[in-house]
Write a structure and sequence with these properties.
The structure holds two protein chains of two kinds.
Chain A: H1 2-24, H2 28-44, H3 50-64, H4 67-75, H5 77-81, H6 84-102, E1 113-122, E2 125-133, E3 138-148, E4 151-159, E5 162-163, H7 164-196
Antiparallel strand pairs in A: 1-2, 2-3, 3-4, 4-5
Chain B: H1 4-18, H2 57-82, H3 87-100, H4 102-111, H5 115-130, H6 139-142, H7 153-159, E1 167-170, E2 174-177, H8 178-188, H9 200-217, H10 221-228, H11 232-249
Antiparallel strand pairs in B: 1-2
Helix pairs in contact in B: 2-9, 3-9, 4-5, 7-8, 7-11
Classes of the chains: A alpha+beta, B mainly alpha.
């Protein structure tokens, strides 16, 4: 009897132990699947208006995307050259810019399916490959993740071989070269203002 | 334009699904606790990176400006008017052209000894030309799960080690580089339209329909880049270069 109870306790502790390990780091592919599925569920919700969708999605993304890592990767070597005040300012502006840019596209979503292909983990970084199946084509989309103390976070998205962060890096580097970090920050502020109050952009609908 | 519209179109689609979001609005919930935790300073600096070689940038920017006007004042208005054609029909037109261009993909797969890709193109062509009614539908993808894989002579050259050379913007056709520009001249001979016994203006007409149709299916990709990028020229140059290098690796 005593032995049985002992064995039972042992089993429980092993199971609990493994559970806590598993929950502290969900595998990268699983993490991406959960996030994307959550976003798609919100997108498909016929009851929600687009402002409500926007808020819900932004709440999800704020937990799963790592804006500091995105910022650091975008500035690359210029990150170390920036003062910590400039760094903080950049993270804030860059996050805002991404939101202004991409959340407005929520209404363009039309029932694309996503399949999850594979994950590759190397040290504290991982790449998860997925495919978006749209009406006319299959679009390869990969997520790059970095391991933080409470789990994997996305810091780059690669669509059809085009890395979002690397794309920002290329144009931001040129601006920093010509106008310095302060020039870049000023341009970002101006762009955010423009996107919030759309003036008549040539050819815009 | 024809070049980069299809290649950037999916970028939008995906951003819809991934939607990176801001953190700093006062009305918003705080970032995850990790957002402020510092990362190793050097962690991202060794990330591989594609850089375009652009010695004739001022000239390219001139052509870019010209293409921009052409897009906003001619191509886009025409494509918008053409949207009266129902979308399924326009998707079929796009499928038809894609099927027509099979020889280019097939030959370039074989030139790179990618026999599996070549065979897939062949099966796709047979299926889509028959069950898919002359290529108007894509049952090979929808039913058999065989997706198209783009191959062209620029990729073939890249496969054998040719670098991109310098970046160029062509009037009407948009971004390219020395390697891919030469490649598309060669691909011209793999385009069945080249061998049709028709007049030059008719040939031009076919290409115009293809371009207008593709533009009509695009969800304002160029407009978004124009509106959002700090420097649209650099954004497109980088996207083009990354995309081409990525395609060559595959």
């Amino acid at each position: 009897m005593k032995e049985k109870a002992y064995r039972f306790l042992l089993c429980v502790s092993v199971v609990l132990g493994s559970l806590s390990v598993a929950s502290s780091t969900t595998a990268p592919l699983e993490q991406v699947r959960l996030t994307v599925d959550e976003i798609i569920t919100i997108l498909r919700d016929g009851q929600l208006e687009s402002t409500a969708k926007r808020e819900k999605i932004s709440a999800v993304v704020r937990q799963k995307f790592d804006f500091r890592a995105m910022s650091q990767s975008t500035l690359s070597t210029n990150w170390r050259k920036a003062s910590s005040v400039e760094q903080q300012r950049f993270v804030a502006l860059f996050s805002e810019l991404l939101e202004e840019t991409y959340l407005r596209r929520i209404d363009a979503y039309s029932d694309e399916e996503v399949s999850y292909v594979q994950e590759a983990v190397r040290d504290k970084r991982a790449v998860v490959d997925t495919i978006i199946r749209s009406k006319t084509a299959d679009i390869p989309v990969s997520y790059k993740l970095v391991l933080r103390s409470d789990g994997w976070r996305v810091y780059d998205v690669v669509v059809e071989e085009i890395s979002l962060i690397s794309n920002f890096r290329s144009s931001y580097r040129e601006i920093v070269q010509k106008e310095g970090i302060s020039g870049l920050l000023a341009k970002m502020e101006e762009k955010i203002r423009e996107l919030r109050n759309p003036v008549n952009v040539e050819g815009a609908k | 334009m024809k070049h980069f519209v299809p290649c950037l179109l999916p970028v939008l689609l995906c951003f819809v699904l991934t939607a990176p979001v801001a953190a700093e609005g006062p009305e918003m919930a705080p970032l995850s606790s990790e957002q402020s935790e510092p990362l190793d300073e050097f962690i991202f600096e060794e990330e591989e990176e594609v850089r375009a070689f652009d010695p004739i940038e001022p000239f390219n920017r001139g052509i870019f400006w010209f293409n921009d006007k052409f897009y906003f004042y001619l191509l886009k208005p025409v494509a918008r008017a053409y949207r009266v054609v129902p979308e399924p029909a326009r998707v079929s037109v796009s499928n038809f052209f894609s099927n027509l261009y099979t020889p280019g993909r097939l030959v370039n797969s074989l030139l790179q000894f990618k026999f599996q890709d070549g065979a897939r193109e062949l099966v796709r062509f047979v299926m889509n030309s028959t069950i898919g009614i002359l290529g108007l539908f894509d049952p090979a993808r929808a039913v058999a799960g065989l997706s198209r894989k783009d191959e062209d002579f620029g990729q073939t050259l890249g496969h054998y080690g040719a670098g991109g050379g310098f970046y160029m913007v062509w009037p009407f056709f948009g971004p390219t580089n020395l390697r891919d520009g030469l490649g598309s001249l060669v691909d011209g001979f793999l385009d069945p339209v080249y061998y049709f016994h028709i007049k030059a203006w008719e040939r031009f007409g076919i290409k115009a329909v293809d371009t207008i149709n593709a533009t009509s299916l695009d969800k304002d990709t160029y407009e978004s880049i124009k509106e959002e990028a700090l420097d649209p020229y650099v954004t497109i140059r980088n996207a083009y270069t990354q995309r081409r290098e990525g395609l060559i690796r595959k």
